[in-house]
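Quick one: N-acetylglucosaminylphosphatidylinositol deacetylase from Nyctiprogne leucopyga, structure tokens please.
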Amino acid sequence: SGNYYNQGEIRRKELEQSCFLLGIPASDVTVIDHRDLPDNPAVEWDTQLLATLVLKHIEAKNINLVVTFDAGGVSGHANHVSLYAALRYKYCCLEIFILFLCLGCHVLVLESVNLFRKYISILDIPISCLLPGDALFILTEEETEQAKRAMRCHRSQLLWFRHVYLLFSRYMVVNSLRLL
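--- reply ---
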């Protein structure tokens, strides 16, 4: 629920506002507040518990595409890495893999890049285009501005380094993904 600094309710509202700017209605936003899944950048979540919750959500919402972090979690955040581990866990179990196929659900993972590439903004586009991958998303200037407005909704998290991220991160412009 984003309650690391006891700001769970504030962060939930910020998330809903951000999603609204991206065209996602609040009814499609699910916030999980589970005592065994604390918002803490140093805590790895229980893989099986998280995988079960994610699968239930996929089934309940009839989701056909999941986009998540890769094993690096883009920033190394333990909670981000846990999401990848949970999806990989469920996706690699044969019966769940068959269920994913029956649901028609695919999983794309966002590529973590080194610090240099992470902060060269649009200069990473040629590099990303040359490297192999399953999907490459390059945002238009308008889409980039929309993404920045959505990020700015998360006021409680906008520390100095996130302002640097907004200005220079390649993830605000280009995202490379691969199928799990």
